[in-house]
Amino acid sequence: MLNLAQATYDAIVAHAKRDHPDEACGVVAGPEGSDRAERVIEMVNAAGSPTFYEFDSGDLLRLYREMDDNDEEPVVIYHSHTATEAYPSRTDIGLASEPNAHYVLVSTRDCFDSEGGNNEGPVEFRSYRIIDGEVIEEEVNVVEQLPPPDPAQSDPARSSL
Amino acid sequence: MAIEVRIPTILRTFTDGAKAVDAQGASLSALIEDLEGNHPGLKDRLIEDGDLRRFINVYINDEDVRFIGGLEAELSDGDQVVVLPAVAGGAA
């Protein structure tokens, strides 16, 4: 199951709608091993395409360095499909390379009319694990705020400040 | 003579879980041959038909090797090499 704060969910949906009809992409980073999706990082789709996304290689290196420096990992990797359902394509499955990540797919196909106007239709928002070519869908649980981190994993010297 | 190579999560099955390993070589292709000697199977995940795989990024001192000679990119002692799979996909 993927637990997401409402604000994180809203940020991903807003990004997908803003970039429509191109695919939007990004990550939600969180402390290593915590499975907490805390920090939304919108990435530029270097492919600038309605049917493909790719992080720019320089952006990718900076992102991973930054997460490494913060002891973070990509808890969620998200992207949008703008004309098809929010289910991993063969390309998505073949290129998935983070076995620990939740792969979130958002479909904006019902949010816009044929002229590109916003018709307030629903956004499809689904999450998957993609490991060794196998796709397992999981529940998305949106909460107002993520519960506080497990105290066993937090730094006691900091928590009193 | 050692060059640190950062290994992404998905390839750590080849390095007994190590996030970084030392290797040597005067070029990227020589470095990959050296890596293969100590971590069999790794080369095939980096190279296809004699070239770097399209969706594998390799950086030498923060430069994408595609801009500095690809597999022929030169290496010297103390350089840092980072391997990162592309984050990519899409409906097509």
Describe this structure in words.
- The complex is a heterodimer of chains A (161) and B (92).
- By secondary structure, chain A is of the alpha/beta class.
- Chain A is 23% helix and 32% strand.
- Chain A has helices at residues 6-19, 57-69, 90-95, 156-159; strands at 2-5, 25-31, 39-43, 53-54, 72-81, 102-107, 124-131, 134-138, 140-143.
- In chain A, the strands form two sheets. A six-stranded mixed sheet of chain A has the order 3-2-5-6-7-8. Chain A has a two-stranded parallel ribbon with strand order 1-9.
- Chain B has two helices and eight strands, in the order ββααββββββ.
- The N and C termini of chain B lie far apart (45 Å).
- The relative contact order of chain B is 0.24.
- The model of chain B has no long low-confidence stretch (mean pLDDT 96).
- Chain A binds chain B through residues 23, 25, 27, 43, 47, 49-55, 57-58, 60-61, 64, 73, 77, 79, 81-84, 88-89, 91-92, 95-100, and chain B through 8-10, 55, 57, 59, 62, 64, 66, 82, 84-92.
- β4 of chain A pairs antiparallel with β8 (88-89) of chain B.
Given as residue ranges, the uncertain stretches of chain B (5+ residues, pLDDT < 50) are none
Question: How far is it from the N-terminal to the C-terminal residue of chain A, by CA?
Answer: 32 Å
What separation lies between the terminal Cα atoms of chain B? 45 Å
Largest beta sheet: strand ordering of chain A = 3-2-5-6-7-8
Q: Which word captures the global form of chain B?
A: globular
Low-confidence stretches of chain A: none
Determine Rg of chain B (CA atoms, Å).
13 Å
Percent strand of chain A: 25-35%
How large is the count of helical segments of chain A?
Answer: 4
Rounded mean pLDDT of chain B is 96
Most extensive chain-chain interface: A-B, 34 and 19 residues
Largest sheet of chain B: 5 strands, mixed
- Assign the structural class of chain B, choosing from mainly alpha, mainly beta, alpha/beta, alpha+beta, or little secondary structure: alpha+beta
Instruction: Count the DSSP helices of chain B.
Output: 2
Following the backbone from N to C, one meets helices and strands of chain A in this order, namely EHEEEHEHEEEEH
